[in-house]
Amino acid sequence: MAAITPSQASESFQIISSLRYEPALPDVLRAQPTDVYPDPLRSPYYLLPYHRERLLKAAECFNWSKAARFLQRDVESFVEHLNSFIPDRTKPWRLRIVIDRDGACNVEVNAAVPIDPLSLLLPSETNQPPTPWRVTVDSQRTVPSPFTTHKTTSRDNYTAARLRAKITSPQDPAEVLIVNPYGEIMEGSITTPYFRRRRSTPTQVNIDQEDAEPAWVTPPLSSGGNAGTTRRYALTRGFCSEQVITVAELIDGEECWLSNGVRGFFRGRIMLKEPKP
């Protein structure tokens, strides 16, 4: 499969970022230390500064100067713009920020699935759905490109991977892992995955016991996946580190964590074998 370049993609593609508007989030954050969450405004918009920076990096990658100027405005102005799209500030919403090359910013708003707001901060076993998401591996390989590094409306590779995995609705509790030509996990089709692994083998003879214990890891950006906002937050908080994970290393039935900007952190289970009828 050949890599897609910006010049080959549709001229009408847009850069996007999806996030949650959670009215309970400011109250939850008041109980948190001020240095562990990136939004000094403590707004209901989950990880808002990370989303703005993510969109700005995409605009700069595609040389969209007008979009970059729009995104360089301060966070307070960005919040005011988003507020104009919220129909009811007492309810949670799923926002899809869509920005074109001319800097026009539209926001698609839909009702969000209710969740425990604490699951937005870091993985927690409490108040999780009783059944983890089913996580499978795409049967085809995806070549990394600017459209896997940055989130855009040019998502044919992801749509095809979900169809191959028989995921027919965004509401399905299922995910498919995207794999590069080297057999490395890049990311999930709509999530960042985290796996429990021993850290890469140190070269020194004497290693700390802490380094020998299993820890949570997520694929590095060098494997070709998206620089997700919850991924950045999990790394900043020290929940995980980066480590290359290959398909061959996955274990059927192992539990993992998944995250995205709408649902926060939630459990998954790797399913390498077809379920019996």
Q: Quick summary of this structure?
A:
The protein is α/β, with parallel strands linked by helices and 277 residues long. It is 22% helix and 23% strand. It folds into two domains: 11-114, D-amino Acid Aminotransferase, Chain A, domain 1 (2-Layer Sandwich), CATH 3.30.470; 133-270, D-amino Acid Aminotransferase, Chain A, domain 2 (Alpha-Beta Barrel).
Structure commentary:
This is Aminodeoxychorismate lyase. Pfam families: Aminotran_4. It comes from Aspergillus thermomutatus. The chain has 277 residues and is an alpha/beta fold. It has two domains: 11-114, D-amino Acid Aminotransferase, Chain A, domain 1, CATH 3.30.470; 133-270, D-amino Acid Aminotransferase, Chain A, domain 2. It contains eight helices and eleven strands. The strands form two sheets. The chain has an eight-stranded mixed β-sheet with strand order 6-5-4-11-10-7-8-9, with helices on one face. A three-stranded antiparallel β-sheet has the order 1-2-3, covered by helices on one side. A hairpin with a 3-residue loop joins strand 10 (255-260) and strand 11. Helix 2 (48-61) packs antiparallel against helix 3. The longest helix has 14 residues, at 48-61. The model is unreliable at 1-10 and 202-207 (pLDDT under 50).
Number of strands: 11
Give me the CATH architecture of the largest domain, please: Alpha-Beta Barrel
Main β-sheet description: 8 strands, mixed
Helix content range of the residues, please? 10-25%
Residue ranges: pLDDT <50 for 5 or more in a row? 1-10, 202-207
List the helices and strands in order. EHHHHEEEHHEEEHEHEEE
- CATH T-level topology of the largest domain: D-amino Acid Aminotransferase, Chain A, domain 2
Calculate the mean pLDDT score and round it. 90
Approximate strand percentage: 15-25%
| Cα gyration radius (Å) | 19 Å
First and last CA, distance: 33 Å
What number of domains?
Answer: 2
CATH class label of the largest domain: Alpha Beta
The number of helical elements comes to: 8
Structure class: alpha/beta
**Can you tell me the overall shape?**
globular
Relevant CATH superfamily of the largest domain: D-amino Acid Aminotransferase, subunit A, domain 2
Major β-sheet strand ordering: 6-5-4-11-10-7-8-9
InterPro entries: Aminotrans_IV, Aminotransferase-like, BCAT-like_C, BCAT-like_N
Protein name: Aminodeoxychorismate lyase
Organism: Aspergillus thermomutatus (Neosartorya pseudofischeri)
Pfam families: Aminotran_4 (PF01063)
